[in-house]
Design a protein that fits this description.
The protein is mainly alpha-helical and 294 residues long. The chain has one domain (3-291): Orthogonal Bundle (Farnesyl Diphosphate Synthase), CATH 1.10.600.10. The protein is 71% helix and 1% strand. The chain has helices spanning 3-21, 30-40, 47-59, 66-84, 101-105, 107-126, 133-147, 153-163, 170-180, 182-195, 200-227, 230-233, 239-242, 248-252, 254-271, 280-291; strands at residues 94-95, 98-99. The chain has a two-stranded antiparallel ribbon with strand order 1-2. β1 and β2 form a beta hairpin. α1 crosses α4 (66-84). It is globular, with a radius of gyration of 18 Å. 44% of the residues are buried. The mean pLDDT is 92.
C-alpha cells in the first residue's frame, strides 16, 4: 500500500468520526451547522488528524479517544481557514477548489462557523470517552497554546499581517511560520503521543519530527504558490506575491527553498530513528509533504 492509498483509507475513518462528532445539518440553528459542515467536509487532506492518529499508534495501538482527539485538530484547522479567507484577512474566494465560506453563507455566518468549529473542538476534547480527566486537560492545554497568540497560530497570523510590505527577513519569516503553520502540525503529533502515554524521550522525538515537517510543509506551500496554478492548488495561486507576503521564496529564492524543504525532510526522518518500523507512515508522510504538487 502506498502512502496516498493509506491516507485515503485513514481519511475515510476521520471523516466518519467527524460526521459522528458534528451536529447534523438540520439541527437548529441549521444555517450555522450547514456552514460548519460545508468547510469541514470540503475535501481537506486531513494531515493534522492523520499525524495525531499515527503518532498515537507509534506509541500504543488501540488508544481510547484517539480518533476523536484527531478530529478536534481538523476542526481548529478548518476554523482557521474560514477566517483566513475572510475579506479582512487574506480575502480569498476559493478554498479546496470551491467557493469560500463567506462567499456561500456571507461574512457574518462564516465568522460564526469558524467560531463554532473552534468551540466544538474543545468540547470534543473535554468529552473524550475512556480518557482520564488529567490527560483530557493536558490535551486541551496543548491545543489552546498551539492555536493561541503566544507562539501559536493566531500569533503567527498577526505576524503575517503586520509583515506585509516589510522587508523580507529570515527572522520575521521564521516568527510567522513556526507559529502560523508549524505550531498546529507539531501539536498534532504531540497530542497523539500524549494520549497514547508517551514517555518524555518519545514525546521529545515526535515533537522534533513535528517541528521539521511543519517547517517543510510551509516551505513547500510557499513554493507551490509560485510554481503551480489555481486549478492544481484548489485555491488562488500567486496571492502571496500579490499581497507582498513574506515567504521562503521571497527571502531565499526558489532553489534554496527547495533545498531547505529537503533538509527538513531528512531531519524529520532522523527524529524517528528510535521508533524503527513503527514509524513507517510518519516517514512516508514527510516524503509526501516535500514532494507534493498541491
Amino acid at each position: 500500500m502506498t502512502i496516498r492509498e493509506y491516507l485515503a483509507e485513514q481519511t475515510k475513518l476521520i471523516d466518519a468520526e467527524l460526521d459522528r462528532l458534528m451536529p447534523p445539518e438540520d439541527r437548529p440553528p441549521a444555517t450555522i451547522h450547514r456552514a460548519m459542515r460545508y468547510s469541514l467536509f470540503a475535501g481537506g487532506k486531513r494531515i493534522r488528524p492523520f499525524l495525531c492518529l499515527e503518532s498515537g499508534r507509534v506509541i500504543a495501538d488501540g488508544t481510547p479517544g484517539l480518533a476523536a482527539a484527531a478530529c478536534s485538530l481538523e476542526m481548529v484547522h478548518t476554523y482557521s481557514l474560514i477566517h483566513d479567507d475572510l475579506p479582512a484577512l487574506d480575502n480569498d474566494d476559493l478554498r479546496r477548489g470551491r467557493p469560500t465560506s463567506h462567499k456561500v453563507f456571507g461574512e457574518a455566518m462564516a465568522i460564526l462557523a469558524g467560531d463554532g468549529l473552534l468551540t466544538h473542538a474543545f468540547q470534543v476534547l473535554g468529552q473524550l470517552n475512556g480518557v482520564a480527566v488529567d490527560r483530557r486537560a493536558r490535551l486541551v492545554e496543548e491545543l489552546a497554546v498551539a492555536a493561541g497568540s503566544v507562539g501559536g497560530m493566531i500569533g503567527g497570523q498577526v505576524n503575517d499581517l503586520e509583515g506585509e510590505n516589510q522587508p523580507p527577513t529570515p527572522e520575521l519569516l521564521e516568527s510567522i511560520h513556526r507559529a502560523k503553520t508549524g505550531a498546529l502540525l507539531r501539536v498534532s503529533v504531540r497530542m497523539g503521543a500524549i494520549l497514547a502515554g508517551a514517555n518524555d524521550e518519545e514525546l521529545d522525538a515526535l515533537s522534533r519530527y513535528g517541528e521539521h515537517i511543519g517547517l517543510a510543509f510551509q516551505i513547500v506551500d510557499d513554493i507551490l504558490d509560485v510554481e503551480e496554478s489555481s486549478a492544481t492548488l484548489g485555491k488562488t495561486a500567486g496571492k502571496d506575491a500579490a499581497q507582498h507576503k513574506i515567504t521562503f521564496p521571497a527571502v531565499y529564492g526558489l532553489e534554496v527553498s527547495h533545498r531547505m524543504a529537503e533538509q527538513e525532510r531528512e531531519r524529520a526522518h532522523a527524529a524517528l530513528e528510535r521508533f524503527g518500523a513503527r514509524a513507517k507512515w510518519l516517514r512516508e508522510l514527510a516524503d509526501l509533504i516535500v514532494h507534493r504538487k498541491a
